[in-house]
Every structure is written in C-alpha cells, then in structure tokens.
C-alpha cells in the first residue's frame, strides 16, 4: 500500500495535501481505490461550492456500486479535476497524482489537526 | 445446479432482526423510487432493521447518475418521456434498466457495518440468493451469477438462466467508501430487477433509444436477455403472484422473519422529500446552479 508520508489522511480514506494559502488538494487513498476496484465514474462538486467537514461531497462508482465521499475539511472548492470526467481510471492508476479530485480553500484550518499521519492511517487500515 | 452459497446463508442468519416489505401495484408510482432512499435512511438511523423490499415501479427507464450527467442525456430523457418511457435516476451504479409491468424489484438494505462484515461481492451474492432460490423452488429453474456481454446493465452479478440475463443488479453504499469500514452511520442498498413478462423487444428498443439519443450508441442486444415467461406458462397476474409468493417464502426461509409489512408512514413522508432526486431535471438544475 502506497502511503506518502507528506500527506494527511481521513478515516474515510481520503488523502489531504497542504498546498499553502490555506488550500489543500484532496483525493482517495491507494488502499481505497484498490478496495473499490475499477472506477468508472467520479461525481464531484463544482468550483465555488462550499463543503462542510464530514459531509458528502461527491461519489465514485465501481463494480456498479456507488460510494459516497466525505469532506475531510470545510471550505470552498477552488479547483476540480475535470480530467476525471473522461478518465476516471486515473483514480486507480495514480491516486495521489492525476487521480486527485478537488482543491479546497479551508475555512477552518484546524480541521487538519483531526486528520491522521501515514503511520496512524496504516494502523487504522490494518486494524480493520 | 445452483452455486453453493453457505456463506451468504450464514450472513442472512447472523443478522437477527429483519423486516420484509412487500408492496403491491398500488406503489407503482415515482414515489416507489424515492422510497429506496427513505427506507435506507430509516435503516441507517436504526429506526428499521435490515430490510428486504419487494416492489414494482411504473413503466420507466431507470438510470444511474453517470448516465444522466450530460445535456444530451437530459434531452434524451425528455424525448423518452414523450415516448411514454419516462426516465428516473437511481442512486446506485450501472447502466439503464427497464421497469414497469412485467418486472419485479428486490431491494436489500443493510445497516452500514462498524466492523468489516460484508464486501461488495458478498452483498451482491446475498441479494441474488433469494431470487435464485425462488427461481429454483417455484419454477424449477436453475440460475447462476455471470456476465452477459451486450445485456442491459451488465456485470458479474447478473442472475442468468441458460445463458440469458433475467436479473440486473447494482449497489450504493451511503456513509463512506463501499466495502470499507466506516465509523459513521449509513446503509448499503443492493437492488435487483427481475424480468418476468415485460415485452423484451420493446424494452430493449427503449433502452437503446435512450442511449442513441444520449450518446449515439445502441449497447443492448435483445438476444442476451430473457423474461421469466420464456420458460414458464401462465397469465401475467398469475406469474406476478407466483413470483411474489415464491420470493416471500425464500426470504422468510433465509431471514427467519415472519411478517410482511409496508413502508411506514414516516418513510412514505420522507420519500416525498427525496422524490426530486429521482428526476433527471434535478441533476440538470444542479449542473446549472453554479
């Protein structure tokens, strides 16, 4: 399982990368994409949408199964990976790179403190 | 010969409390689609136990969100409505499925597990089990899971008889990623549509008409699907009755539940609030909101 050390992780299997200016890039983890199987559709919010931490912000479809995605932080969506519309398989192939989903400008930067580092996420996944 | 499914039988029995909902033709309105969300929410909140719901929808093409996201697809939905094939949007994945007289739906609702209990494959197998038992015990028909390329909403967990698809299946996991443990409450909905006596050619033509208008393809081949009345004689009402009774018997045997009920008044009321989610226009409005 690939878990980059510089990222933070939510208990709903999202990764969060700090990008400066209160902005974070978000996607789902390598573990999650592997468990879900071949992803054929990604539904994401629009730029300008406000997200609330722990609320649904989109969904992914794999094996004819739709899964809800939960926001790891609150804030405004400032960028959306539109390439996933035509290439949802990027989430499987490069979950931390071209498979990123959204960039959010955080309204509560303290949300980051509740996220896990790679070791803790690894431990959570192993426990489950 | 039906595939051995002891694990799935045990999974049914491991859930102590079950509810069986059986809705007759009176529930065949758009509200019956929204009921999928309201029943699921009731299960997620713990207000209702794990539930199996037998129901029939009105004549319609039922699509996933993926299939209604483009303007062309919205246009296709409007055209199909004029052709008396209204389009409804479901929360689960996959591609378009025909509903209406001559089809029967089975929905399985499970509360989201706090521990690693089921995965996606197991939930599909749990869903298929009562249908396969009903086909075997009521009609003497052996069925199995398998892909049927060229059939509607194809996948590994079609229920297949003699190489032809008779049941399509799909799932949605609310409360976090499918197959993974989530701390939050949620529910798993797996649903199936059995083709009993719908006119196969007409249904396939409608599905292809939608896709041709939406994306310029005709993905469904008539000969890949079959209806139950290809192998079973009897009038439509008789077939409806035998399928429903056989399914209730199979479900009772698997779950140990006795009673059969209808959705609660609270679930019906909540369904009215969810109704807009089932309409293609809802997704168009969402796309235009920005």
From TrEMBL, chain A:
Keyword Transport assigned: no
Record CDD domains: GCS_H
Cofactor: how and how many bound: Binds 1 lipoyl cofactor covalently.
Pfam families found in the cross-reference section: GCV_H
Any one of the GO BP annotations: glycine decarboxylation via glycine cleavage system
Residue positions where N6-lipoyllysine is found in the record: 64
Keywords: Lipoyl
InterPro entries referenced in this protein's UniProt entry, alphabetically: 2-oxoA_DH_lipoyl-BS, Biotin_lipoyl, GCV_H, GCV_H/Fam206, GCV_H_sub, Single_hybrid_motif
Domain Lipoyl-binding: 23-105
Domain of life (superkingdom): Bacteria
Cofactor(s) required for function per UniProt: (R)-lipoate
GO cellular component: cytosol; glycine cleavage complex
Function: The glycine cleavage system catalyzes the degradation of glycine. The H protein shuttles the methylamine group of glycine from the P protein to the T protein.
Family designation: Belongs to the GcvH family.
Subunit record text: The glycine cleavage system is composed of four proteins: P, T, L and H.
Protein name, entry field: Glycine cleavage system H protein
Organism: Paludifilum halophilum
Source taxonomy: Bacteria, Bacillati, Bacillota, Bacilli, Bacillales
Automatic annotation (TrEMBL), chain B:
GO biological process: one example: protein lipoylation
Residues covered by the BPL/LPL catalytic domain: 46-241
Chain segments annotated as coiled-coil in the UniProt record: none
InterPro entries: aa-tRNA-synth_II/BPL/LPL (IPR045864), BPL_LPL_catalytic (IPR004143), Octanoyltrans_LipM/LipL (IPR050664)
GO molecular function: catalytic activity, acting on a protein; transferase activity
Matches recorded under PANTHER family: OCTANOYL-[GCVH]:PROTEIN N-OCTANOYLTRANSFERASE, OCTANOYLTRANSFERASE LIPM-RELATED
Protein name according to UniProt: BPL/LPL catalytic domain-containing protein
Organism: Paludifilum halophilum
